[in-house]
Amino acid sequence: MARTQKDQGSGLTPAEDAEAVKPTPRRRASSASAAKDAAGSVAKKVSAARSRGRKPVPRSATTTGPATNPLPVALPTLDPEIAPGEKPARSHGLRNMSEIRHYFRTNRTPIFFVGASAFNLLGLDRWVRGFSYIAYYDSWQGAHPRVFSPIHKPYVEFQSGEEINNWLLRHHEVRAHIARLTPAGERPRIAMVFFDEETEQICEELGYELILPAASLRERLDSKMVTTRIADAVGVPSVPNIITTVDSYEDLIAQAEESGLGSDLVVQTAYGDSGKTTYFIADPASFRKNEGDIVGHEVKVMKRINNRPIAVEAVLTRHGTIVGPFMTEITGHKELTPYRGGWAGNEMFPGVLDEPTRHTATSLVRKLGDALSAEGYRGFFEVDVLLDTDTGDVYLGELNPRISGASAITNVTAGAYADIPLFVFHLLEYAGVEFDLDVDEINDRWEELAAADQWSHMIIKHTDPTVEHIDVAPPTGRYVLDAYGRLAFSQGDLDWHLLGSEAESFFLRIYGPGDYRWKGADLGILVTKGRLQTPSGRLSIRAKHLIESIRAMYAATELPPAAAVDENELIGIESTS
Predict the structure, then answer these.
(1) SS3 509
(2) 29, 364, 383, 548: which is deepest, by most CB within 10 A?
(3) What is the pTM of this model?
(4) DSSP 33
């Protein structure tokens, strides 16, 4: 039920603008879906600007032709220590955490995270020697030694994160880069947030190993109806609901009241991004507004409750499910997103859940993991848990069978540094080596260690209904509060893992000078220590200051309006999964 009734306990607006494009089986993941926002209406507005005699500035030097940067950029080369050679023989499987850490610090098999940006798993290369990133948007302009972005990027109207990733995998520069970093006899491994059967075909043709569950299985499990039925079968409770079809408002109310759900309802269709196909129905008017998406479709009809939304990531291994830290969600704030109820970040802090509730929620996620195992799933997934603030009951909200935007925080916790980041367990599951894990012991330790950490991140979107050419943008790197309390650029940095206090922040830029921004476009992601919301769910004074400071560092030129363009056609970025 994602980003819907989850907001009721905090006083946030409990709905999100309906997506104008056909819903697809994916949602919140990363700024990784960044480039899908460039499709459709933006191209029309740029074209309109040209027709009015005003030629827009190219998106960037690297997207319209050869690079013009006078500074030479070094291409990654093979580390001599992972050059072709005979692998050391293993006499036994990996028996403990020390051996697992050693394996990934010395293993020569290259692993590439492919996406619109490197956001989701940024910093994982600190633990995994062969891990690097292939991104459409290079947030460091060539300065990150493990981020590769092709130079030749002609304008393409991407409609989805899958299209971006498939385009990258086919690109001649990307293929050459992968070949250059792959030792003889090795098969490069590919991870990503969004992929489909076409991705699988590309990887098979090119000889890449896609270390993710099958696309067909992921799409099936992405359905809210399928997830609910699987959860019901193993005793994982959902908010009281029925799965049905309706032909009118009267039919909806009759079925709901017969099932004891009342007349104040939440209705969901099977697929949808970040709450965009979740509808709050309290009267005939609210039904009429959305009846085209409801009537005749299989829908999940739920009782509306007051609740607090909690996000958690987990990894399903052959030895059981390892559960990451629980986080609250930053949703619907107009300072961050134009979408009502839209996800815009996460917070992790000791009081996310009290100890009994945390045990209950952990048990729920592990039981769901066991059910997914029976379906043939393995690896990383994210779960939205709903805490009923009136009764204290814990419900399954939604399953997302993929890497998510919460990974940015999951991978920097005390548990990650005590053992390994959660996603490394996913890599272990697909590594092709034998290993042994005491999942109960790991979960107990992580539950205790995660409660000591405080991290937050915010996805900062362009919220105005304008299309603008970006002239100036803040660089990626570390920012600090100076003696006057102003947010100031401190230095370029590779990731946020070394932030030590609330006086520091890391900003990952998505769109830079030469790019365009429009309603819903991700400008970048800000990561920091500490909380960014008040206990009542409002953005804190500190959070608003950080947002205003980042926005003030942009300068842009607005394009003339195109009369024929419907603003509702603009596709907002989902910050990933």
Answers:
(1) strand
(2) 29
(3) 0.83
(4) G
